[in-house]
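[Automated response] Your request has been received and processed.

Submitted sequence:
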Amino acid sequence: MRLRDVAMIAAAAPALTGCAAPGLPAFKATLSRHDSATAALEEWCAARGIAHNSPVTATMIAAATLAGEGDDRTAEWRKALAVGPNEPVGFRHVRLECGGVVLSEAYNWYVPALLTPEMNRELAATRMPFGKVAAPLGYRRELIESADGQSGGCPPGIVLSHKAMLRLPDGRALALLVECYTAANLTR
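Generated structure:
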């Protein structure tokens, strides 16, 4: 390589800093094809060889049932979910993993009254992701916000951030999600 070539590459580097990470457009396309982030991650995991025939599981970081108004953020989620101040709102903070590889960290506020009792038990007692548990309800996903990199309360090291609403077929809000996708999705 000649000195002139090195100089041209160095001059172009600032313009390239905003370019998407390799594989990010394909990853976004996979997510957009699914109403369930879990289903998208399972397809992505299999296609990229991240883990051989491993399902996506949820490692619980925190879970709660929020009663009452709470703080401003809780009030924001209650309004978005169209629930009253005394109606319980479920909360799960999980890491979605495929074969031990963390693909996403997710925050999920949901309306337990819209789930069956069995679904609520499954969410409380298993590593099953919300999307799999609630899939029989036939929800659809509405992407509210998407940002390359860290956004919306996501931890550092995130390559893609989503805020999304899951709606039942009748239009009622089932869950509000903040999804933080890790660089592990783009490493293979």
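Summary generated for your ticket: DSSP finds six helices and six strands in the chain. Residues 3 and 9 are 10 Å apart (CA to CA).
If you did not submit this request, please reply to this message.
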